[in-house]
């Protein structure tokens, strides 16, 4: 009797072990099928794009874009680029004149000085434009009033980030006086399409026809303003432009986010400021006036974060180009599209109020292809619009949830089983159609 009990117990344990093994095997097979049919999007508890279970609005960190990308500015004119040229600057209220020459290393004043963050000395390095007075008029300059009347060349400085960024600050440190007029422009992709970002002038109304320091409202959140803030304190001044000042929160407002977004920045220097005469009352030589009618900048910094539309918390430099490491089932350079299998609802930007993650299509593990169907989405009350494509295992339907003609559901299989649809037990001679009774398969 004791031996029989032991034998029964042994077979019971074997049966339980086999059952557990079958369950584990079944789960493993299902897991492998899920990997095959559903591209994964993980919700890591250490990931700022989720709380471990649900998606969260996220964005890459704030950074000095010009430093991280190590991009150089392009200038329409640089002192000494074509030939040796004289330039003058004031130091301790006295004139100091030298020569710039791009062919001589010691005399170069290149655009790399505009963002040479890796310099090893404390000495201030500056880019100089050289004189902006048209060559034919340089000999006619005798006084400061002549400078005011002279025809000058506009100077432009451009930098392209090769990727959209949400710009927060643009700062410029001048070696000489702040220009009497200048404009900052932005481009969101095509460098030929420049949008004014900010105006600066000694007199905004006279120079640009714009009232200075206009108040920001909901009606003009994307309007460039004009500032006269630097019209008096000019020498060695740091000009700072805050793109979001009083405009709102970009993580909430698409309008503000559009305003902040730029892929390239252009600074147009329109009119230099005139240096005052020496304090000792001596007349400034005309040659010095000409050589000092220029622009000089030591540093330009553009700060913000890589634009990933609220669907990434990092932006890596890959092959020299910034690229969002997309989460939330999104893809694209700026996480601006849903993955091909995350088409259950339309793509949307993430916000703090709603992360708007892309949702995976429910195809019951019978395909890894689907597309968004707007009619289906509206019929569901804007809940689900994923239309499965190329259903396998003899299934069909928006979610591969029904069996094709000639097949019927197996009541012993789950809808996501590859054997869910079994062949109808119908004789082809005596059957009117390929359809069969779903309850018994006959």
Automatic annotation (TrEMBL):
<dbReference type="Pfam" id="PF00053">
    <property type="entry name" value="EGF_laminin"/>
</dbReference>
<keyword id="KW-0424">Laminin EGF-like domain</keyword>
<dbReference type="GO" id="GO:0009888">
    <property type="term" value="P:tissue development"/>
</dbReference>
<keyword id="KW-0732">Signal</keyword>
<dbReference type="Pfam" id="PF00055">
    <property type="entry name" value="Laminin_N"/>
</dbReference>
<dbReference type="InterPro" id="IPR056863">
    <property type="entry name" value="LMN_ATRN_NET-like_EGF"/>
</dbReference>
<keyword id="KW-1015">Disulfide bond</keyword>
<protein>
    <recommendedName>
        <fullName>Laminin N-terminal domain-containing protein</fullName>
    </recommendedName>
</protein>
<dbReference type="Pfam" id="PF24973">
    <property type="entry name" value="EGF_LMN_ATRN"/>
</dbReference>
<dbReference type="InterPro" id="IPR002049">
    <property type="entry name" value="LE_dom"/>
</dbReference>
<dbReference type="InterPro" id="IPR008211">
    <property type="entry name" value="Laminin_N"/>
</dbReference>
<keyword id="KW-0677">Repeat</keyword>
<dbReference type="InterPro" id="IPR050440">
    <property type="entry name" value="Laminin/Netrin_ECM"/>
</dbReference>
<dbReference type="GO" id="GO:0009887">
    <property type="term" value="P:animal organ morphogenesis"/>
</dbReference>
<feature type="domain" description="Laminin N-terminal">
    <location>
        <begin position="54"/>
        <end position="305"/>
    </location>
</feature>
<keyword id="KW-0325">Glycoprotein</keyword>
């Amino acid at each position: 009797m004791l031996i029989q009990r032991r034998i029964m117990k042994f077979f019971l344990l074997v049966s339980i072990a086999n059952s557990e093994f079958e369950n584990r095997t079944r789960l493993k097979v299902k897991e492998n099928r899920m990997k095959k049919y559903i591209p994964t999007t993980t919700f890591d508890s250490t990931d700022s794009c989720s709380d471990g279970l649900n998606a969260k609005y996220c964005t890459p960190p704030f950074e000095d874009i010009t430093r991280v990308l190590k991009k150089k500015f392009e200038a329409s004119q640089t002192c000494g680029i074509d030939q040796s040229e004289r330039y003058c600057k004031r130091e301790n209220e006295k004139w100091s004149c030298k020569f710039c020459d791009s062919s001589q290393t010691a005399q170069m004043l290149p655009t790399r000085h505009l963002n040479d963050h890796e310099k090893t000395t404390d000495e201030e390095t500056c880019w100089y434009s050289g004189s902006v007075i048209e060559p034919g008029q340089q000999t006619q300059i005798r006084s400061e009033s002549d400078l005011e009347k002279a025809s000058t060349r506009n100077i432009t400085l451009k930098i392209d980030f090769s990727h959209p960024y949400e710009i927060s600050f643009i700062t410029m440190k001048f070696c000489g006086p702040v220009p009497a007029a200048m404009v900052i422009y932005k481009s969101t992709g095509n460098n030929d399409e420049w949008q004014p970002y900010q105006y600066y002038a000694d007199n905004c109304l006279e120079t640009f026809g714009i009232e200075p320091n206009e108040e920001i409202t909901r009606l003009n959140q994307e309007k460039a303003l004009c500032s006269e803030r630097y019209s008096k304190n000019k020498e060695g001044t740091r000009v700072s432009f805050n793109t979001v000042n009083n405009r709102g929160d970009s993580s909430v407002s698409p309008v503000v986010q559009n305003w902040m977004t730029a892929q390239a920045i252009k600074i147009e220097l329109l009119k230099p400021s005139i240096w005052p005469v020496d304090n000792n009352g001596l007349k400034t030589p005309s040659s010095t006036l000409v050589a000092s009618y220029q622009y000089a900048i030591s540093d330009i910094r553009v700060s913000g974060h890589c634009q990933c539309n609220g669907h990434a918390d990092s932006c890596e430099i890959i092959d020299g180009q910034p690229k969002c490491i997309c989460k939330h089932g999104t893809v694209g350079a700026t996480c601006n599209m849903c993955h091909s299998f995350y088409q259950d609802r339309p793509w949307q930007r993430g916000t703090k109020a709603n992360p708007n993650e892309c949702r995976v299509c429910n195809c019951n593990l019978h395909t890894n292809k689907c597309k968004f169907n707007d009619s289906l989405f509206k019929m569901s009350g804007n809940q689900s619009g994923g239309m499965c494509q190329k259903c396998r295992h003899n299934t069909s339907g928006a979610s591969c949830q029904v069996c094709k003609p000639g097949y019927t559901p197996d009541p012993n299989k789950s809808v996501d089983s590859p054997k869910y649809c079994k062949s109808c037990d119908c004789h082809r001679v005596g059957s009117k159609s390929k359809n069969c009774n779903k309850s018994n398969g006959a």
